[in-house]
Amino acid sequence: VSDFIEKLVEEFARFPGVGPRQAKRFAYYLLTRNEEKLKSFTESLLKARKSVAHCGSCGRLSVKSGKTSLCAICADASRDKTLFMVVAHDVDVESVEKSGSYKGYYFVLGGMVPILDEKPEERVRVSELKKQTASRTRDGLTEIILALDLNPEGEHTGEYLKTLLSPTVAGKNIKITLLGRGLSTGTELQYSDPETIKNALKNRASV
Ligand SMILES: [Zn+2]
């Protein structure tokens, strides 16, 4: 196998949920396409990439809208400034929005903090979160909702965030809450149905 092919396989192996065997299948599939098809594939990829940017506030990937660096949610001044929800991934925002039961703002961590991880700040957007939280505490914030997956990694991430954010909210009458147990153990937020998320939000509790 040439170095080029190996490199291609490595690229696919970095995809979420893709193992080494599947990565190899993807790579070999692409290699059987003709060059015209590959060219149009890479062009669509680049065009799609150019059309999106990370929101300057919540950090999620959203379609660029010209003048603002904010996504549609962060740019919407009519949302509830008292609520700030921290989620792990972009897709979690979509799931919560679909539930229609949350009208506050978001922050996307960009991942979770694995148990025993020694450098969480290199894995998730820690300093940006602290900055955003501090600025929201001056703008009417009353509650930070940690909306994480209900698995050991999610629990660990919640503990980590609580410790991280406590000094920022101390003495300011801002509570930190966790989603209620409406979500069953092991559930990932992105796969939860709107009704479940609605209940989990309704039953959230201070940590
Ligand atoms: Zn945003």
Notes on the structure:
Helix content is 45%, strand content 14%. By secondary structure, it is of the alpha/beta class. It has a 5-stranded mixed sheet with strand order 4-3-5-6-7. It starts with a helix and ends with a strand. The model has no long low-confidence stretch (mean pLDDT 91). Residues 55, 57-58, 60, 70-71, 73-74 line the site of zinc ion.
Topology:
Blueprint: H1 3-13, H2 20-31, H3 35-51, E1 52-54, E2 61-63, E3 80-87, H4 90-99, E4 104-108, H5 120-123, H6 126-137, E5 143-147, H7 152-169, E6 175-178, H8 194-202, E7 205-206
Parallel strand pairs: 3-4, 3-5, 5-6
Antiparallel strand pairs: 1-2, 6-7
Helix pairs in contact: 1-2, 4-8, 6-7
Outline of the structure:
With 207 residues, the chain is an alpha/beta fold.
Number of strands: 7
Low-confidence stretches: none
Residue share in β-strands? 5-15%
Helix count from the secondary structure assignment: 8
Please estimate the helix content: 40-55%
Order of neighbouring strands in the sheet with most strands:
4-3-5-6-7
N- to C-terminal distance: 53 Å
Arithmetic mean pLDDT: 91
Query: Which structural category fits the helices and strands?
Result: alpha/beta
Q: Calculate Rg over CA atoms.
A: 20 Å
Outline = globular
Largest sheet: 5 strands, mixed
Ligands and ions found: zinc ion
Order of helices and strands: HHHEEEHEHHEHEHE
